[in-house]
Automatic annotation (TrEMBL):
InterPro entries: Class_I_gatase-like (IPR029062), Peptidase_C26 (IPR011697), PuuD-like (IPR044668)
Protein name as annotated: Anthranilate synthase
SUPFAM superfamilies: Class I glutamine amidotransferase-like (SSF52317)
Pfam families for the chain: Peptidase_C26
Length: 245
């Protein structure tokens, strides 16, 4: 494992896509994620959804030094004890199980984890938290997801004393595209940022291990690589520690 260019595993969609003469289900991820990792000095490896066991998750993560859980479809509400809202996506239970298993194994190993949008919700639900299934019902507006693939610029305020505050300072302009959000915060997690509506926009696990998740899309701000630089740096430390064992 190279500490100077650590390998970062990124979860992906498994969805229908058109490319060339083909129209087929494919494991895919917007290139912005990959470009952000490589621009920050890491090597990106894609981890597409597939049937999973704890042993498979362990074998997959043996080849990387950090895990990024990316954006995507809404989680199955059954995972946090709710029935589906009319606006909730039809669940992708294969991806849900895949990411929960990878997250559990990464945390068992003390591997650095960065969650993005859906990834923040995966982290929260995995640790016993819940979600607001349709944020407009809570705040009365659709400002967090304008629709049509158009991201909404928003200001978030970090919580003093958190890892995120150390990385980003007191405030940060971010790009949002979400209609769900964290409601009850999972066990041991702390809120590390909120927006002007009071919506939780970031959570993290206190302590030495790097486990941080944001509700926004940092890959859509290519001039601000601070979160990606942080996960790459932590992955380098993790890789170096493995070499030293």
């Amino acid at each position: 494992m190279s500490a100077s260019e650590p390998v970062i595993g990124l979860t992906t969609y498994l969805d229908r896509a058109k490319f060339g003469v083909w129209d087929a289900r494919a494991g895919l991820l917007p290139a912005q994620y990959i470009q952000s990792i490589t621009a920050a000095g890491g090597i990106a490896v894609l981890l597409p959804p597939q049937p999973v066991t704890p042993d498979i998750a362990a074998r997959v993560l043996a080849g990387v030094s950090a895990l990024v859980i990316t954006g995507g479809r809404d989680l199955d509400p059954a995972g946090y004890g709710q029935t589906p809202h009319d606006e909730t996506d039809r669940p992708d239970t294969t991806r849900d199980a895949w990411e929960f298993a990878l997250l559990a194994e990464a945390m068992r190993r003390g591997m650095p984890v960065l969650g993005i949008c859906r990834g923040a919700q995966v982290l929260n639900v995995a640790l016993g938290g819940t979600l607001h299934q349709h944020l407009p019902d809570v705040i009365g507006s659709t400002g967090h997801r304008a629709g049509g693939g158009v991201f909404t610029p928003m200001s978030v305020r970090t919580v003093a004393g958190t890892r995120l505050a150390e990385l980003l300072g007191e405030t940060c302009q971010v790009q949002c595209y979400h209609h769900q959000a964290i409601a009850d915060v999972g066990a041991k997690l702390v809120v590390s940022a909120r927006d002007d509506d009071g919506v939780i926009e970031a959570i993290e696990l206190p302590g030495e291990d790097f486990v941080l998740a944001v509700q926004w899309h940092p890959e859509e701000s290519p001039d601000d690589l601070r979160l990606f630089a942080a996960i790459v740096a932590e992955a380098g430390k993790y890789a170096l520690a493995r070499v030293s064992e």
